[in-house]
Amino acid sequence: MNIAILGGSFNPPHLGHLLIADQILKFTECDEVWLTPCYHHTFAKNLAPVKDRVAMVKLLDRTNSKIKYCGEEIENKLSGDSIDLLNILKKKYPHHKFFFIIGSDNLSGFKRWGHWEKLIRENNFLIFPRPGFSTNLVDYDLDDPSFRFKTINNSLIVTTDISSTIIRERIKKNLSVKHFLPEKVEQYILINKLYI
């Protein structure tokens, strides 16, 4: 089975994550998308507690049976290096082929990722286009033929500027986030008084 890994802080998970996952299923050879929240984010900021981010991702993954929660990074308390996660997944699920999703907005900083050269030579990456960011690997000096990047190019792909940062700022200012979050995630945030 081909599995796409959508990793991130999911702080909080939002409709943009679902939009990406849905389109990965439609426009690639992937059979499932596993939403994989980080335990600790390498470049992060203030994260909501792990238990809350996991609960919200589990609410998000109820929307489509092919979009699933993957807790390997949390359960193994990984440092945030993608190579560690992918090594665990490949060992635990040797019959699956994994594809790590990366937004084109992350390409400019890809060389700051831990073990980035080994990571890209030993693992498959799907580049999802983001508004305002090139998907041309030459622009980032990442066009080495041994790098296993595949750009998702389809004229029907829809991109969005929805971000967890904007959602947190809107919640803090008591502004509506109705069109950014699934209703159950929004309710969870309100009940648990997150991001205020």
UniProtKB/TrEMBL annotation:
Pfam (any one): CTP_transf_like
EC number: 2.7.7.18
Pathway: Cofactor biosynthesis; NAD(+) biosynthesis; deamido-NAD(+) from nicotinate D-ribonucleotide: step 1/1
Protein's recorded name: Probable nicotinate-nucleotide adenylyltransferase
InterPro entries: Cyt_trans-like, NadD/NMNAT, Rossmann-like_a/b/a_fold
PANTHER family: NICOTINATE-NUCLEOTIDE ADENYLYLTRANSFERASE-RELATED, PHOSPHOPANTETHEINE ADENYLYLTRANSFERASE
Taxonomy, superkingdom: Bacteria
Segments traversing the membrane: none
Gene3D superfamilies xrefs: HUPs (3.40.50.620)
Key words, A-Z: ATP-binding, NAD, Nucleotide-binding, Nucleotidyltransferase, Pyridine nucleotide biosynthesis, Transferase
Organism (species): Candidatus Roizmanbacteria bacterium CG_4_8_14_3_um_filter_36_10
GO biological process, one term: NAD+ biosynthetic process
Keyword Transferase in record: yes
Cross-referenced CDD domains: NMNAT
Reactions mediated catalytically: nicotinate beta-D-ribonucleotide + ATP + H(+) = deamido-NAD(+) + diphosphate
Stored HAMAP family: NaMN_adenylyltr
Main function: Catalyzes the reversible adenylation of nicotinate mononucleotide (NaMN) to nicotinic acid adenine dinucleotide (NaAD).
UniProt similarity note: Belongs to the NadD family.
